[in-house]
Amino acid sequence: MYVIVKAKANNITTINDKFLSTLTLRNQFKNIVKPDKTAIQELDELIGLDDVKHRIKQIVNYVKVNKSRNQLPMLHMAFLGNPGSGKTEVARLVGRIFYEEGILPKANFIEASRVDLVGQYVGQTAIKTQEVINTALGGTLLIDEAYALDPKDSGKDFGAESISTLIKAMEDKRQELCVILTGYQQPMQDLLKSNCGFNSRIQFKLYFKDYTPEELYKIFKKMVKDDKYKLDKRLKPLLLEHFEQAQKQDDFGNARYARSMLEKIKMQQAQRITEDTAADIDLIKVADIATVINYLDEERPKEKFKIGFTTSL
Predict the structure, then answer these.
(1) Which pTM was predicted?
(2) Among 187, 144, 143, which residue's Cα sits nearest to residue 166?
(3) What is the pLDDT of residues 119-171, one digit of tens each?
(4) Backbone dihedral region of 138: left (phi > 0), alpha (psi from -120 to 50 degrees) or beta?
(5) Alpha-carbon span 73 to 67, nearest angstrom
(6) Residue 296's CB: how many other CB atoms inside 10 A?
(7) Which of 121, 183, 280, 311 has the smallest number of CB atoms closer than 10 Å to its CB?
């Protein structure tokens, strides 16, 4: 925006290297507002994930000590866990931590998935993958659902080309790049076992556990607060019981489930407010949540009972 405004003010129609050289971008951005807290502080404030937090601090200390000895290890990581268990959020913080601690020279954090890396035609994939790598150099590259790069029955798939390009960069650019692969636990384990290139270059593997009902309640409360709503104080037992039951679903989404549930509750609360104009528009009541829970319970697949006979000898 600064460049465009300067160009307009000086009646510049073409932005070229000569024009850019006249600008003191670095000075113009000295006063950009920085986060109030360090990435380590933000990591500490995350709900749950105690094992992951401890492990990341160990890794940071290990890397810093070895860097001071001019023996910087590979920084690449794999985050394994179910959906909504905090993998992406923690990866973003790791990228910031590595920059703030002087481990990596840039705050670059690039998020990519299969569609960003794999082309549709011969020769496209290596170029696409290398372009993403070049953008991330100096910082961190997050590849979400990394196991999709090596799908089952991939006879004519170009994912292998992307993996080869990525593995080469992980080796050649080890001093200036951190690659974090994330995905569900079993598919990621299969990927790492099937590809010795990944397995030998990823020194740090972190396992993200599902949140407990108590942790999900705290996450839900934080989302409510962030959205500037208030919760009826009698809601905790109702929510804890619901989260405990919801966790039994095969596709349970942890924090994503809590967010989706909150959006449904806000819609139910809005419906109630329109019917009672004197109601507090910021308050979520027991009735709002109970209605949504009943709806979600009806949506949940019912257990199938087998009909048959058994014999005894």
Answers:
(1) 0.81
(2) 143
(3) 888 889 999 999 999 999 999 999 999 999 987 655 567 888 999 999 999 99
(4) left
(5) 8
(6) 16
(7) 311
Q: Are strands 77-81 and 109-112 parallel, antiparallel or unpaired?
A: unpaired
* Per-residue H/E/C for 217-280: HHHHHHHHHHCCCEECHHHHHHHHHHHHHHCCCCCCCCHHHHHHHHHHHHHHHHHHHHHCCCCC
Which residue's entry shows tokens 């962030």?
Answer: 226
Q: Could you say which DSSP state residue 33 is in?
A: P
Adjacency order of strands within the sheet including 77-81:
109-112, 140-143, 178-183, 77-81, 204-208
Q: Is 16 exposed, middle or buried (0-12, 13-18, 19+ CB in 10 A)?
A: exposed
Q: Give the whole-angstrom CA distance, residue 60 versus residue 100.
A: 11
> What's the rounded Cα separation, in Å, for the pair 151 and 142?
19
Mean pLDDT value of segment 190-217: 92
Beta bridge mates, 110: 141
Measuring CA to CA, which residue among 144, 206, 140 is closest to residue 170?
140
For residue 45, count CB atoms less than 10 angstroms from its CB and return exposed for 0-12, middle for 13-18, buried for 19 or more: exposed
